[in-house]
Amino acid sequence: MNAGFNDHATEEMLETYALGKLFEEDCAPLEEHLLVCCICQQRLERMEEYTRVLKAAARSLKRVPAPCVRRFAPEVRTA
């Protein structure tokens, strides 16, 4: 097993990697682990799909204040 891994990569590490935010020095050990671990490969695939869906949803949201914001702050205008 690679240094830094007890058994498998953590969810946090896979999420950070999928988002492209993992520190460079942590990428190589994770990528080496992914070469030999089918379980983490599958988990990463699910994480990448999850992040794609979240990014698409975030892009499609309109920036409209919630109804309670409009009620208490009527000067806030929607785009």
Largest sheet: none
Approximately what portion of the residues adopt beta-strand conformation?
under 5%
Provide the low-confidence segments as ranges.
Answer: none
Portion in helices: 55-70%
Shape estimate: elongated
Distance between the termini: 52 Å
Mean pLDDT: 82
Q: What is the alpha-carbon Rg in Å?
A: 19 Å
Alpha-beta content class: mainly alpha
SSE series: HHHH
Tally of helical segments = 4
* Count of distinct strands: 0
Give an overview of the whole structure.
By secondary structure, the protein is mostly helical. The protein is 63% helix and 0% strand. The chain has four helices and no strands. The chain has helices spanning 11-18, 24-36, 38-60, 67-72. The protein is elongated and about 55 Å long. The termini are far apart. The mean pLDDT is 82.
Element layout with pairings:
Layout: H1 11-18, H2 24-36, H3 38-60, H4 67-72
Helix pairs in contact: 1-3
State the main characteristics.
single chain, 79 residues, 4 helices, elongated
Summarize the structure.
The protein is mainly alpha-helical and 79 residues long.
